[in-house]
From TrEMBL:
Matching PANTHER family: ANTITOXIN HICB (PTHR34504), UPF0150 PROTEIN SSL0259 (PTHR34504:SF2)
Domain HicB-like antitoxin of toxin-antitoxin system: 3-67
Organism domain of life: Bacteria
Species, as recorded: Planktothrix serta PCC 8927
Name recorded for this polypeptide: HicB-like antitoxin of toxin-antitoxin system domain-containing protein
Length: 70
């Protein structure tokens, strides 16, 4: 499955979350690190849901960019 992630820059690190998987988050020092950690977190999260007998949520979020000219 392919899930959208949101990466946000903080003061000293980057944080990421998955809109379709509440509670699935990661923090890293670089965008590349947080992307890798997020991939691992998603797998871990999905495995936990399966082990607990929960349904795996379908990816529903769509990421888009819009241009806003002033």
């Amino acid at each position: 499955m392919r899930y959208a992630i949101v990466i946000e820059k903080g003061e000293n690190s980057y944080g990421a979350y998955v809109p379709d998987l509440p509670g699935c988050v990661a923090v890293g020092e670089t965008v590349e690190e947080v992307r890798t950690l997020m991939q691992e977190a998603i797998i871990f999260h999905l495995e936990g849901l399966q082990e607990e007998g929960f349904k795996i949520p379908e990816p529903l979020s769509i990421c888009e960019y819009v241009e806003a000219k002033l």
